[in-house]
Amino acid sequence: MRSISVVVSTYNAEDWLRKVLAGYARQAHRDFEVIVADDGSRRATAELVAQLAADYPVPLRHLWHEDDGYRRQEILNKAIPLAAHDYVMFTDGDCIPRSDFLAVHARLAEPGRFLSGGYCKLGMALSTRISLDDIASGRCFEPAWLRSHERLGGSNRRKLGAGPLAARVLDAITTAGATFNNCNSSAWKADLLAVNGYDERMKYGGADRELGERLERHGIRGKQVRHRAVCVHLDHARGYKTEASMQANRAIRVQAREARLRWTPHGIEKPCGGTGLLASAQDAATH
Questions:
Q1: How far apart are CA 227 and CA 169, in angstroms?
Q2: Which CATH class is domain 4-247?
Q3: Are 256 and 195 in contact (CB under 8 A)?
């Protein structure tokens, strides 16, 4: 049985986080820990995690830094070295996992690969409607129950309705790229450290994909699990999403791609005397 460190990112969303942690408390795969990577939430988040940790079925930790704007990549980079296990699963505090979610990641993990999953996005009314009992019973993953509350798109119907064999076939034939997605991706800790984690200059929009691109250049290929590793995504506003941040992130990805970087000097380790991505490209590419 593979041990997994689950890293759940969050920011001031206690109601959603409670539902997500309820989902992880009911996993069929039991050999894991949960690290809540908190990008500067108010005290209520720490209080919630402490309350749940008292009788949570697996180790549950809270990792926090001060609120200084959107610094999600920084808190994720702090979580990676602290992971107790050699395999790390990344998800968000708005993605409730089906009970077989971690079992899929544990079973399909293999050397030289990272796993690429997705989510089934729900509307705000249904996101609010889902209760802890709906999570415990598994109703919130049943297409018929979900359709009784809101319309389900074709992609969600396929992910939620596919049996094991059909899900495997759908993952094999999907045209979706096997990218690294913070909502539902896993990788070996050693591989994440080898590329120096996330680029901390990046704000919302593509920082996870950029990490995956460096993993690919390092020789770690993505494997599609979007129809087998299923989670439902609770709706929320994205006030941190700006066109300026998206443009800046795209420029960083282009620079890293052109320089064929595998290691970012703006990640977990900060080289002394670093002068930026392009100036460091030659040295970084040798790591």
A1: 9
A2: alpha beta
A3: no
**For the whole model, what pTM was predicted?**
0.92
pLDDT digits (tens, 9 = 90+) for 151-180: 999 999 999 999 999 999 999 999 999 999
Under 8 Å between Cβ of 9 and 77:
no
What is the Cα–Cα distance from 109 to 118, expressed in whole angstroms?
16
Residue 264 exposure: Cα atoms within 13 Å on the Cβ side: 26
DSSP classification of residue 140: G
**Phi and psi, residue 261, nearest 5°:** -70, 140
Distance between CA atoms of residues 63 and 65, nearest Å: 7
Closest CA relative to residue 186, chosen from 227, 144, 215, 149: 215
Question: What CA–CA distances, in Å, run from 226 to 36, 151, 222, 279?
Answer: 23, 20, 12, 37
- What is the rounded distance in angstroms from the CA atom of residue 123 to the CA atom of residue 236? 9
Q: Are 253 and 213 in contact (CB under 8 A)?
A: yes
What number of CA atoms fall less than 13 Å from residue 151's CA on the CB side? Answer: 2
User: Hey, what's the torsion of the CAs at 264, 219, 186, 266, to 10 degrees?
Assistant: 0
